[in-house]
Amino acid sequence: MKIENTKAQMRKGVLEYCILSVLKDDDAYVAEILETLKDAKLLVVEGTIYPLLTRLKNAGLLNYRWEESTSGPPRKYYGLTETGQLFLNELNTTWNELQNAVNIVTSQKNNKNE
Amino acid sequence: MNKTVNINLAGLFFHIDEDAYLKLQRYLEAIKRSFTDSQGRSEIIADIEARIAELFNERIQNNKQVIRIKEVDEIISIMGQPEDYLVDDEIFEDEPQPSYKSKLKASKKLFRDTDNSYIGGVSSGLGHYFGIDAIWIRLAWIILILGAGTGILLYILLWILVPEAKTTAEKLMMTGDPVNISNIEKKIKDGFENVSETVTDVAKNVSDSVGTAAKNVSDSVSKATKNVDFKKQGNSIKSSSKTFFDAIGDIFMFFFKIFAKFIGIFLIIIGASTLIALIVAMISVGVGGIIPGLDLVDIVNAGNTPVWLVSLLVFFAIGIPFFFIFYLGLKILVNNLKSIGSIAKFTLLGVWLISIIGLIIVGIRQASEHAYDESVIDKKELAITAQDTLKIKMLGNDLFRKKIGHSSSFKLAHNIDGQKTIYSSDITVIVKSTSDSLASLSIEKSADGRSYEKARERAQNINYNYELKNGTLFLDSYFTTDPKNKFNDQEMVLVLYLPEGTVVNCHDNTKTFFPYRNYYGTIITYKDTNHYLKVKEDSVECLDCPVEEPRKELKIDVDVKGEDSSLKINNKGVEVKVDSAKLKINNTGIKAKNEDVKVNIDSDGIEIKSDS
């Protein structure tokens, strides 16, 4: 078992949740989403995001509209759908529970070690 | 100095160095390979291209600037290596995808495995394709070769038509492993070739295989099902891409593929069996003499067209269409079949047309052999006078046919000298009366031919014998001719002219040689054999036929007219009434009466009463 694989899997699992969170309030086009995620060091390379966006869109969680750009090709602006909103809410709860659970488990271990 | 290429990336125009272009192309192809159609490959690629175009755009100050390999490398480091695009499906799937495995299998392609080959790698390739050990396929070959020798042909066909797995990607496709970067890497680490070559070859292979008809059909079907997918999935709450409609699409595709494969197998069987049969036939004709009936074919072949030519023409005329059927079947069954090329296709078409034309010419030649029907007549006198009694008997020949009888077919046999000869019993015997003092026999030989001379020559070459001995005329029941004359409707008519008054007796075995009725003006028909017949002018008189006595016929004329007349005949008796006259006959006796007389005959005697 490679540590890289586990790391990547952990990151990718959270990634969907994070993309939905970025789009929570405002529509954004890919470069903007990427910027946010890269700033947060959640994403190293940009390629990963495209299959994820397509998957979320196909699942009906996201939709998009085209907007002309002054410098470059037309841009896809992504936004949450109603189901996406519900999905995100549920993920929020799950994430909080998970964070809590992980905290408990890891801190217990720390306590024991001490 | 570097050559540049113009590209259109997401609707934007770029100048790009050739080496940079190739790198970018390989990169995009590798990414494409990481996705399947069901993941929305084309859409993902379009998005990525758009992003790359955007990134390029940021790096270009003016329109004249060219994108170099440096920029491409930068972009790749930003976008990530192809394996970074891979999304581990298991993390995201709500449920395991049952079709995952079958999809992998569907991408398995038939290649020749030259790494593990004995001859051309066909067997191990088939082994990979069907997922069984190559040893079983090899055993099957051996059985096929020992069985009919047809395995060799099939092997050679597959050898020519199935491409060799040259690149790593092809080798992976051959074994059914999904072609993705990690697998290719694994193979390379195992000691194959380098990535870039492989990836270009994959690209080439993709464009090649797209051309195949079967692939096109399945692609369009999968596209159609996908369109349904997108619309319906908009409403789906499930995060999984697997929906009900997707499943229906999969089922439909599955059955469609199975159906197509069945048709493919069916076509292959038809094509292959016909080809095999044709080749076996060709070989037997070529070796000649193996088939006992073959020299018979040569004998009817009056046009003297070489048999090998005809069989070759037939072989091509039938074989080529069936080869295409076989090829079509293979194409349906195997996605990445090598094209036989348009030159080969047109050559085959040309050969086929030539063969058809050739066969037509041969047919016309053969038909023209019957254009002329000529006969040769030879009249001989026989020492038979009006006072003689002549017996006629047919003679058979044990060498040819034991049974004596008329037959319009021909046979091939060896004569006393051991030479092959054609014999036939197509002989008709006719008897006519003549006023001459001596009998005569007219022998008429006839045959067909391409020309008057040919037909005449053929007729003259008919050998026929007869003998008059002790008042008996022995006629051969057959005639013979040399096989080089061919059989072309040779037949004989024997006309026997007998003086009026001659008595003739035809043996029972002549029966079938006489006409059924008095055709050709014969005075003896098949019914008259085995009797002593006296020849009269245009007729015969039977001397020993049982004389038929004139039959005594019971005639009853019943003529009933008028109201007062009646006739009654029933099991009680007869009752006749005419006006006042009456006659009654029954078991009691006879009663008759009219106005004046009454007669009664019964057990009491005869009573006659008169009124007057």
TrEMBL record, chain A:
Gene Ontology biological process terms from the UniProt entry: regulation of DNA-templated transcription
Q: Which domain of life is it from?
A: Bacteria
- Tell me the InterPro entries matching this sequence: ArsR-like_HTH, Metal_resp_DNA-bind_regulator, Tscrpt_reg_PadR_N, WH-like_DNA-bd_sf, WH_DNA-bd_sf
Q: Look up the signal peptide feature and give its range.
A: none
Domain Transcription regulator PadR N-terminal stretches: 19-89
| Gene3D superfamilies (UniProt xref) | Winged helix-like DNA-binding domain superfamily/Winged helix DNA-binding domain (1.10.10.10)
Q: Which CDD domains match?
A: HTH_ARSR
The name under which this protein is listed is: PadR family transcriptional regulator
UniProtKB/TrEMBL annotation, chain B:
The organism's taxonomy opens as: Bacteria, Pseudomonadati, Bacteroidota, Flavobacteriia, Flavobacteriales
Residue span(s) of domain PspC-related transmembrane region: 231-369
The PspC-related ToastRack domain sits at: 417-547
Q: Does the keyword Aminoacyl-tRNA synthetase apply?
A: no
Name the residues that span the membrane: 139-162, 262-287, 307-330, 342-364
Q: Record's Gene3D superfamilies?
A: Apolipoprotein
**What is the recorded membrane topology of this protein?**
Single-pass membrane protein
- Where does the record say this protein resides? Cell membrane
**GO cellular component annotations of the record:** plasma membrane
Alphabetic keyword roster: Cell membrane, Membrane, Transmembrane, Transmembrane helix
Entry's InterPro entries? Phageshock_PspC_N, PspC, PspC-rel_TM, PspC-rel_ToastRack
- Organism the protein comes from: Snuella sedimenti
Provide an example Pfam family for this protein. PspC
Q: From which domain of life does this come?
A: Bacteria
**This protein's name:** PspC domain-containing protein
Domain Phage shock protein PspC N-terminal positions = 108-165
